[in-house]
Specification:
Order of helices and strands: EEHE
Number of strands: 3
Helix content: under 10%
Oligomer: single chain
Number of helices: 1
Low-confidence stretches: none
């Protein structure tokens, strides 16, 4: 099986970001979001995303929906 996307699970804090895991499906990533500030962020392989700060496309907080 070949993957073209990974899904990071992160926890946002006021001053930093904690990376908690990297998964091959959004569902698996969502299952590891246990707190209100945990989010899933998709990342494509082999794609340059730029060097300026932008909002993370596709990022979402499963426990806020």
């Amino acid at each position: 099986m070949q993957f073209n996307m990974v899904f990071l699970v992160c926890r946002s804090h006021p001053q930093n970001l904690e990376i908690m895991g990297c998964f091959d499906s959004a569902i698996t990533a969502e299952n590891h979001c246990t707190e209100y500030n945990d989010f899933v962020g998709p990342l494509p392989f082999n794609q340059y995303l730029g060097d300026t700060l932008v909002e993370w496309p596709g990022c979402y907080y499963p426990n806020r929906e």
